[in-house]
Design goal:
There is one protein chain. The protein has 403 residues and is of the alpha/beta class. Helix content is 45%, strand content 13%. The chain has a six-stranded parallel sheet with strand order 2-1-3-4-5-6, with helices on both faces. A six-stranded parallel sheet has the order 9-8-7-10-11-12, sandwiched between helices. Helix 4 links the parallel strand 3 and strand 4. Helix 3 packs parallel to helix 4, helix 7 packs across helix 12 and helix 10 packs across helix 11.
Length: 403
């Protein structure tokens, strides 16, 4: 079997290529979008056409959904398989999602429930996974110097989303740059109120339902780069405002407040390429290299903190699987899908309030035996049931049944 893997440099791509190759599949790789981020849909379609013209392919694969690939595969009647690892993905609103040669896998059950009615026979649910073997190659060769360097009471690895927050870059009415255009004081107050309310609720995202038409319109109109496409099957403004703008702002606020609160009481090591100045009491460590440093941090830290961005409504982010795959102890915010795969208190720990988070950090820092047992259980659970081998086997089973 030969397939084409269209890459854009997602961190999970090498793991998937490794597993597919291990299955005996010949994986051809197209890297044009890794080298050039200005590639247009027309150029993408031309390149896929070139591949399909020169050799028979069982399917074309990508991480996340590319409408140009979908349309091209539809024309050639070749399956287009993609696995969504992000949320939101605006391209899922393209009419291309309706194509019958699609095989689209979504990791967030809420995302799946939202999009499945558009093309019920071609959209599937598939949670994320981890590459335990890759992490073992790093963790099992850690030295005493590694444990001293990367060990910490509480570690957080990830973006603070301040540099990704489009909402903060929107002009405000009355400002020098936009005295009569931009978002009004009313909308600013409305958004602040929504964020404050959502911060107190875990496992449920109510922001999309509570947005008013006025707030949606003001935010969409205030950004000249707001995602617009004539190739959509429904109005996307509400969804994108809720997730790309307010959701990102919420993530930035939540991460800053959570880390500041913990740093007041506990030693916190912060690994981020974002500006860490707003969290002055955390130990700022800079960015961490994904394949060589991140697994050492996860394995050596007493507590690894995960704060899922709210646009991931029910699903489990890649961070959850990777921490456990490295044999690390994980303390994460509650997500509705957590109990589907793990036993809270046995495989990992979760919190549903800031008070509970502080209590559990204090408890597990002083209960090493329990903490170690949970980390071992979590590792064994993902190693046995949640590897890329398992997920891709399931994907291929679904593909065989669907085709």
């Amino acid at each position: 079997m030969e397939i084409l893997f269209y890459r854009y440099n997602s961190i999970c791509e090498p793991d998937i290529i490794q597993v597919l190759t291990g299955f005996g599949i010949t994986v051809h790789i197209e890297e044009m979008e890794m080298r050039d981020k200005t590639v247009t849909p027309r150029q993408c379609a031309a390149k896929i056409t070139e591949w399909l013209m020169k050799r028979p392919l069982a399917f074309v694969f990508s991480i996340n959904f590319f409408p140009a690939i979908s349309y091209t595969c539809e024309r050639f009647q070749v399956p287009y398989v993609c696995w969504s690892v992000d949320s939101p993905v605006p391209e899922l609103f393209s009419n291309a999602l309706k194509n019958r040669w699609n095989r689209v896998f979504l990791f967030d059950r809420a995302q799946y429930d939202f999009f499945r009615p558009v093309n019920p026979s071609c959209i599937f649910y598939l949670p994320l996974a981890t590459n335990v073997r890759r992490w073992e190659d790093v963790v099992l060769h850690m030295t005493e110097e590694d444990f001293a360097r990367y060990g910490a009471d509480v570690s957080f690895v990830g973006s603070l989303y301040t540099e990704k927050c489009r909402y903060d870059r929107l002009p405000r009415t009355g400002g020098a740059d936009a005295p009569h255009t931009g978002i009004s004081e009313y909308t600013q107050g409305f958004v602040e109120g929504l964020i404050e309310a959502q911060l107190h609720v875990y496992g449920c995202n109510f922001i999309p339902e509570l947005l008013t038409d006025r707030v949606v319109r003001e935010i969409a109109d205030a950004d000249p780069d707001f995602y617009r496409s004539s190739d959509t099957y429904m109005d996307t403004d509400r969804y994108l405002v809720a997730h790309q703008y307010i959701g990102m702002k919420l993530a930035a606020v939540e991460r800053e407040r959570t880390l500041n609160r913990l740093a007041e009481r506990f030693p916190v090591s912060l690994y981020t390429r974002s500006d860490s100045a707003p969290i002055p009491k955390a130990r700022s460590m800079g960015g961490a290299r994904t394949l060589t440093e991140m697994p050492k941090i996860f394995h050596a830290s007493k507590i690894n903190l995960n704060i899922t961005m709210r646009p991931i409504e029910t699903g489990l982010s890649l961070r959850v699987w990777d921490v456990l795959g490295c044999g690390g102890f994980l303390l994460t915010n509650y997500q509705a899908e957590l109990p589907d795969y793990f036993e809270i208190g046995k495989d990992l720990e979760a919190y549903e309030s800031m008070e509970e988070l502080e209590e559990k950090v204090a408890y597990y820092l002083t209960h090493e035996e329990e903490r170690t047992e949970i980390a071992v259980n979590g590792y064994e659970k993902v190693a046995g049931y949640h590897t890329y081998e398992r997920r891709l086997t399931e994907m291929i089973r679904i593909l065989n049944a669907a085709l």
